[in-house]
Amino acid sequence: MRKKTLIQILLFFLLILLSFFIFFKYFNESNLINKKSDKNLLQSSEDKNINNKKDLLKNVKYTSNNVQGDIFELKADFGESNLDKPNLMFLTNVKGEIIFNDNKKPNIILKSKFANFNTVSFETTFIDSVKITRSDEIITGDELYLILDHEDENLDNITSEQKEENLIRMSNNIFFKKPGYTLKADILEIDLITKNTKIYMNNSAEKVKITSLIN
Known about the structure:
This protein is of the alpha+beta class. It is built from 1 helix and 10 strands, in the order αββββββββββ. Strands 1, 2, 3, 4, 5, 6, 7, 8, 9 and 10 form a 10-stranded antiparallel sheet that branches. Strand 3 and strand 4 (108-118) form a beta hairpin. It is elongated. The relative contact order is 0.09.
């Protein structure tokens, strides 16, 4: 009789231990699942906040003109704007064209992989694989800056660089090719009003390298 009672007591305690084991195992697994769920929810919320700060557009196109009546068209496969700075846009696969009001002057085609673009002032910085095509000229470089008319009426409070208007400036590793010769330089500038081109080195002691292609 005592032996039977002892066995019953042992079974009872074993049942209690098994119940605790199952409870704590389930409790820990449930907490782990909840933590993972909270983590995923937090990550999703963070990703959503990041995406909300950016607006991706496809096949963007902008058009403007200067006081001379020249037209500047800018196209890109993609445009990404940041909601914190709505006037600024990062463009991908970019093509620009300057169509001169004077039909005697050849249009200028601008291409690059990327560009930083101000949708208000139309200031554009072309970067990566930058290329200019004008008539029989092909010009490549690392970076190109373009600005049209300055819209700020109070020019006394801005720098001399900010006062620049109707200008193309290509910089770094300039390679200029034209039938009959090529040249290498640091800076190339095109005045969009006079249509004059200026090519020079950063160091005035250095000279632009010209190579004749005529045998």
